[in-house]
From TrEMBL:
It is found in: Cell membrane. InterPro entries: AAA+_ATPase (IPR003593), ABC_ATPase_HisP-typ (IPR030679), ABC_transporter-like_ATP-bd (IPR003439), ABC_transporter-like_CS (IPR017871), Ectoine_EhuA (IPR014343), MetN_ABC_transporter-like (IPR050086), P-loop_NTPase (IPR027417). The gene is ehuA. This is Ectoine/hydroxyectoine ABC transporter ATP-binding protein EhuA. Residues 1-246 form the ABC transporter domain. It comes from the Bacteria. The keyword Metal-binding does not apply. It holds the Pfam family ABC_tran. Keywords: Amino-acid transport, ATP-binding, Cell membrane, Membrane, Nucleotide-binding, Transport.
Length: 260
């Protein structure tokens, strides 16, 4: 995945400007930084939930929404965008499950209607995924009958049901009670350990970032101010802005590996 001169504006507010970075296949990259620094906007651009104001995003060398044609920047057609979008999964902060559908129906909806899988094939895979996230007995339940942690685990299973090459994780624990954060992060750690899915992660859980990432990028004002391995980022950050941010998040007395 490659970001080339990416820009995003909301009216006069420039959220991202001249953003350039690459995420190699199988990389686990965590974006950290203060609220409003543009981290979630990046995920929403990759998911095509927001429209690029300028620049290009490429997935495995293919343009996601815009390309250069005859020297001009032009938008791809909806069909071409959908083809690329199938390869990307996202788990949101607020679960975003369909309340009128059962857990099983939530998980098989996209594989059946977007990937063209048979209902039997999609159901078999959904049951495997529910087993893997510890909810094999909740297939017939509806989202509102589940706890927040259970809903988020269903949302993870739903994203994986599309067999994505890229998984976007947007503050997936911030809406959860503290005591169930660990169970969700444990599932994500297992995915990182057992698959080659590329992950782009926005989180305030610094221990999780350290455990799962091979690269951490500090954002401020829509730009990357520092990029390093987790080891360097959390024990010896170089940029003053990174130092002050981590101190605020982790607290003065904590080891740099701690969580908020």
């Amino acid at each position: 995945m490659k970001f080339e001169n990416v820009e995003k504006r909301f009216g006069d507010n420039v959220v991202l400007k001249d953003l350039n970075f690459e995420v190699a296949k199988g990389d686990r990259v965590t974006l950290i930084g203060p609220s409003g620094s543009g981290k979630t906007t990046i995920l929403r651009l990759v998911m095509t939930l927001e429209e690029l104001s300028g620049g290009y995003i490429y997935v495995d060398g293919e343009p996601l929404t815009h390309e250069v044609r005859n020297g001009k920047r032009v938008e791809l057609g909806e069909k071409a965008q959908k083809q690329i979008r199938k390869r990307i999964g996202m788990v949101f902060q607020q679960f975003n499950l369909f309340p009128n559908m059962s857990v099983l129906e939530n998980i098989i909806e996209a594989p059946v209607h977007v990937l063209g899988q048979s209902k039997e094939q999609a159901t078999a895979r959904a049951m495997e995924l529910l087993e893997s996230v510890g909810l094999p007995d909740k297939a017939d339940a509806h989202p509102l009958e589940l706890s927040g942690g259970q809903q988020q685990r269903v949302a993870i299973a739903r994203a994986l049901a599309m067999d994505p090459e890229i998984l976007l994780l947007d503050e997936v624990t911030s809406a959860l009670d503290p005591e169930i954060v660990g169970e969700v992060l444990g599932i994500l750690r297992h995915i990182a350990d057992t698959t080659d899915i590329t992950m782009l992660i926005v989180t305030h859980e610094m221990q999780f970032a350290r455990d799962v990432s091979n690269r951490v990028m500090m954002f401020d004002g829509g730009k990357v101010v520092e990029e390093a391995t987790p080891e360097v980022m959390f024990t010896n950050p170089q940029h003053e802005r990174t130092q002050s941010f981590l101190q605020a998040v982790l607290g003065n007395g904590e080891d740099q590996t701690g969580t908020r």
